[in-house]
User: Fold this.
Amino acid sequence: MTEPTILHATFTARPGEGDRVAALLADFAEHVREEEGNVVFDATRLVDDPDRFFVYEVYRDEAAFQAHLSSPAGGPFNAALQDLIVEPSSQLTFLRRI
Assistant:
């Protein structure tokens, strides 16, 4: 059985940009959830720090994750996000089920 690709992404909105990041992320989430190999794309905002975002993602397998990375919506999303967040890009942490 093929292992799913599981990760979480975190990033911090620049001061005053939290709502713009949330709107951008909500729109992107709709596209990702339509991808054939996407299992979960759960985009959230921290309650205690609403400028911090946490996205939990599960893809069917590595091929599905690679297809996600090359999806048409990804480039514009990442370009727009980069201008709105503190970090140079979203910080990815890959996970493995136990």
Notes: The chain is about 35% helix and 30% strand.
